[in-house]
Amino acid sequence: MQSQRKTIAFVANTTWNIFNFRLNIIRALVDKGYRVVVIAPVDAYIRYLDQIEGVVHIELPNLKRKSINPLQDLRLLYRFLQIYKRVQPDLVFHYTIKPNIFGNLAAGILGIKSYGVITGLGYSFLHKGFLNKITSRLYRFSLHYADNVLFENQEDLQLFQDLQIIPKNKGLHINGCGVDPGRFRPMSSRTTSSSNIYLFIGRLLYDKGIREFVEAAHYVQKSTANTECWVLGEVDEENPSAIPKDVLLEWIDSGVIRYFGTSDDVRQVIREVDCVVLPSYREGLSKVLLEALAMGKPIITTDTAGCRETVLHGKNGFLVPVQDADALALAMDTFALLSREERRAMGQHSRKLALERYTDKLVVRQYMHVIDPQLQSHLLNSSSDKVV
User: Fold this and answer.
1) Are 319 and 308 in contact (CB under 8 A)?
2) Mind listing the domains of the chain with CATH numbers?
3) What pLDDT digit, counting tens, does each position of 250-279 carry?
4) Which of 122, 128, 130, 356 has its CA 20 to 30 A from that of 316?
5) Considering the entire predicted model, what is its pTM?
6) CA–centroid distance for 204 within its chain
């Protein structure tokens, strides 16, 4: 219990983001006696409040993800100033682009300690052009006011320093959002299918590599008998990289994929497949892949930031070049030739990697060290959480 109860605020562009990625650290802070305030637009995932007692949620109606209207953004900045004056947080963590830009600025104006958290570069960084330049300049301006900036992979940190968005003395690396190895653990399949089943999990965005997955699926289903390619995830219509719904319908109607929509418990789908595939163009550190690791699944993913960290090539899966459907198909065919014993060994390597690097307890320790630097530093170097 803290001798003086401190208030920690978490800000994101959706409550979905909080529900899926931040509950572990929020729960840990509540357990340690901190007052936690979440600031985000309300959506269906507001039900997280039923899981953690004592969290205060403040609505953020002025945050419009797609809006580039300066007046709308000024209203958002004013809203942040109002909230921060009222709440008086001791520390604010800002996630996603607009909270990072306008939230850090508001905190800086008021003299409130804040951290930017870069969980991935997003559409505006992956695609060159006007939006890329504006976002870079806004980041450079607003992150000047942040006391520090956290990154989920080392390459994004280095990029921000190289582009002089942040200075060389600013920036910390944490191991993603973590995964609960007790909840996500190897599970026996409920079916006795002899098929090779590959699973893509993620928002249906071109930047996630869904097009390359479907192109590779066309090939491997012709080259290898009894092959199925499954897709689990939603169409994020607010994202410029979203696939059109008629394209998704065409893929489903052709039989090249089996589409499972969305699920609140991805474990029930992951348990049934042989291999998880994510041909993303770039990630912060993919939670989907962390969950697959923890469940002991082989992985095929791209040799890029936020993905390559999860694969020891040839040990627990395969790495392929970004935007290369042919290489992806070849990796899937190579996997299909592996024996059951070889696949099992790959899965065991995945589980081992998750336990060594990516448990939520390790990530919580890293956050706690950031929040309270006087915590024993050796906690950051713990290699396992005694879960098998």
Assistant:
1) yes
2) 7-178+359-381 (3.40.50.2000), 196-357 (3.40.50.2000)
3) 999 999 999 999 888 999 999 999 999 999
4) 122
5) 0.89
6) 14
